[in-house]
Amino acid sequence: MAMEGYRGFLGLLVSALLVGFLSVIFTLIWVLHYREGLGWDGTALEFNWHPVLVVTGFVFIQGIAIIVYRLPWTWKCSKLLMKSIHAGLNAVAAILAIISLVAVFDFHNARNIPNMYSLHSWVGLTAVILYILQLLLGFFVFLLPWAPLSLRALLMPIHVYSGLLIFGTVIATVLMGVTEKLIFALKNPAYSTFPPEGVFTNTLGLLILVFGALIFWIVTRPQWKRPKEPNSVLLQPNGGAPEEMEGSMAMNFGNMDKSDSELNSEAAARKRNITLDEAGQRSTM
């Protein structure tokens, strides 16, 4: 099936991938060039893993996982395969987000810096917890064949809405974190004097914001939604579709009504015959 507005979709998709990839590259340049690199020794080098893993996993990979159903060249693939890819990408993003939190807490504890006092930390931890719950819910309800179809139909709108809400929350949390880090780190020259690192990292924030906007636009266009599979009609135990089931039941009820009316008419005719016979016998007598 051809996608409506395929060229527009392809242009936005390429733009989103390019901007998301640039966001990851800009983050690496930021920590490697301006923040002295990466490490895992309880110093600021360990903290630098936090923005790298968050932007790579929680922003870029999660964005790809959100739009993976919209790729038209995957529409011929089975829905189970696409569900597995969607869940796998989200699982990778969740693992990277958890490692990024470990890096932050380890750095804070090594430097005796208080944990969980800023709005950035509150919103960020909430987003990670909700993301893990969303991943588990999707795995047990939509990927495994245990949940009844009625439960899936009930939870699907909630699953889609909460996924977009979490993604938007992550974008906002990243922007708060970038600003907070620059305010703490840039003292001489100050952040307010437009130093090169401040300008570069502000550009990184804009790239992340544009990436999120492109993902939201792609995933909310109804004409780019994956079409339903022909065999996705909910089947009843006898193999018939609900519409067929209702039609057959209606026909059966119609036949039952018809047979009942025929029986009633036959009984009435017999009654009339019996009455006529009795009247004839009386008249003869």
Tell me what you see in this structure.
The C terminus is likely disordered. This protein has 285 residues and is mainly alpha-helical. Helices cover 75% and strands 0% of the residues. The protein is globular. It is built from eight helices and no strands.
Mean pLDDT: 85
Order of helices and strands: HHHHHHHH
| Low-pLDDT runs | 232-264, 271-285
Helix content: over 70%
Q: Indicate the multimeric state.
A: single chain
Q: In angstroms, what separates the terminal alpha carbons?
A: 85 Å
The assigned CATH architecture is Up-down Bundle
The count of strands amounts to 0
How many domains comprise the coordinates?
1
Features:
mainly alpha; 285 residues; disordered C terminus; 8 helices; Four Helix Bundle (Hemerythrin (Met), subunit A)
Topology:
Blueprint: H1 6-34, H2 44-47, H3 49-67, H4 79-111, H5 119-143, H6 149-185, H7 196-219, H8 242-284
What's the short story on this structure?
This protein is mainly α and 285 residues long.
